[in-house]
Amino acid sequence: MLSWVFGNAGKSKRGRRRARARKKKPSYKKARAIAANGKLDERAELASHEDLEPEILYYFASDEAPEVRREVAENVGTPLQADKILALDVDEEVRFELARKIGRLVLQLPADENERLAQMAMDVLQILAQDDLPRVRATIAEELKRAANVPSEIVQKLARDVEEIVSAPIIEYSPLLSDQDLLGIIEGGIAGAKLVAAARRPTLTEPVSDAVAKTQDVDAVAALLENETASISEPTIDMIAVEAEGVKEWHAPMALRENLPLRTIRRVATFVSAALVDKLIERNELEPESVDDLRMAVRRRIEAGELTEEVTEHRPAEDRAREMYEAGTLTEEAMIEALDERDNAFVRHGLVLMSGLPADTVQKMINTGAGKGITCLSWKAGVNMTMAETLQRRLGRVPPQQMMRAAQDDKYPLTEGDIQWYLSFYE
Fold first, then answer.
1. Which pLDDT does position 369 carry in this prediction?
2. Whose CB has fewer CB within 10 Å in the chain, the N or C terminal residue?
């Protein structure tokens, strides 16, 4: 690790592949000549050598060409002193490449590392964690989300970042956030991706689960119910069951949750589909008489016309969306009609088909509750910006002040480059 601080760190697999594709490193004398008077492509190529002398890499950190500085930022052989200079570079790509590297390298710091040297690494990390560019901060957050060897103040700052792509990974995974931290973040009024991230957190405790449930956020409570490792108190489960009758998105995750109290099971069975009642019975250990009571209650609902035994009524949303997509009838109008009927599962599957993105990526972009994420997904799906605004509001439940609005002539407000970066980030 000392070699990283002073330069000449061991090569990564990626670095070895790059090194093999390049010419052999020139002699020290020639390298100095290239650094002083070489052409741009010569300096950039030289700066990519991970076994280059540290003083030359340090010199390149102030090169006039951003292409050279990017190579230095990406180079794992660059000494920390040069990384600290690059953390304040005017070129955003330099800082982005540095963030990708430094986040990974900091995780490799041994517990017994020299305190002064470790502090130098943390200083670089601290600067990048406050960068003006969201994707720089997001890159740091993604790398540090499971880290236990970084300063708590960095994690606390990232967890409270205004950008969901920065804060959500930290909220969901960081072992450095206590229950009190999480409660403070939730009570601060978070929504969208941040709240969903809190609901998905592994081994969630009852106090935090209660705080999530009290928000009654549709997506967050659904995520909480789906989180099999979350501890949810009986009063909270009862409260959710009462509200769930009017929230279709909670029906399936409620019915699929294990070890529900019997009174909750009976309540849920009064409003979910017959198929979900079967799931309730499967997922919970019930006495035979309780099972008979539940099935009888379903029969009474069918006879009263509240339910139908027709299988077609319960066709999966994915099948319906695919059928329309293949028939060429999966249009924006069809999506809006589904939104009107609160058939959000159909809309999600429709966006998967229209965008060509993996289902988990689409789900992630919707669950961010962020205007940018859903706007980029809408662009990829080929819908217009008016539809993108509708999806932000009605599917993602993005707060009005955080929505992305159409530019002039109903155009998307982001450049194609920005959109492609967000798409690659989520993928």
1. 67
2. C
Q: Tens digit of pLDDT for each residue in 337-369?
A: 888 877 888 899 999 999 999 988 888 888 766
E-strand ranges in 276-334 read none
∠309-310-314 over CA atoms, to 5°?
100
Q: What is the mean pLDDT of the chain?
A: 86
CA dihedral of 335, 337, 339, 340, whole degrees rounded to 10: 170
Burial state string for 334-368 with b = 16 or more CB within 10 A and e = fewer than 16: bbeebbeeebbbbbbbbbbbbbebeeebbebbbbb
Q: How many residues does the chain have?
A: 427
Per-residue tokens: 260: 């529900």
- Please, are residues 213 and 240 in contact by the beta-carbon 8 Å criterion? yes
Provide the H-helix boundaries in 75-114: 80-86, 92-107
- C-alpha closest to that of 53 among 69, 74, 30, 20: 30
- C-alpha to C-alpha distance for 381 and 419, rounded to whole angstroms: 12
Q: Measuring CA to CA, which residue among 70, 60, 76, 58 is closest to residue 12?
A: 76
228-261, pLDDT tens digit by residue? 999 999 999 999 999 998 888 899 899 989 889 9
- Looking from the CA of 311 toward its CB, the CA atoms found within 13 Å total 0
Judge whether residue 3 has pLDDT over 80. no
Look at 426 and 322; give whichever has higher pLDDT.
Answer: 322
* Rounded Cα–Cα distance for residues 77 and 412 (Å): 41
Per residue in 82-96, pLDDT tens? Answer: 999 999 999 999 999
* pLDDT tens digits, one per residue of 399-418: 777 788 988 778 899 888 88
Kindly report the three-state secondary structure assignment for every residue of 249-288.
HHHHHHHCCCCCCHHHHHHHCCCCCHHHHHHHHHHCCCCH
DSSP single-letter state for residue 313: G
The answer to whether 97 touches 74, Cβ cutoff 8 Å, is: yes
CA dist list (Å): 337 to 115, 174, 331, 385: 61, 40, 10, 17
CA angle 339, 218, 306 (to 5 degrees): 65
d(CA 79, CA 1): 11
- As a whole number of angstroms, the distance between CA 361 and CA 31 comes to 45
Domain boundaries, the chain: 1-157, 178-232, 233-314, 317-426
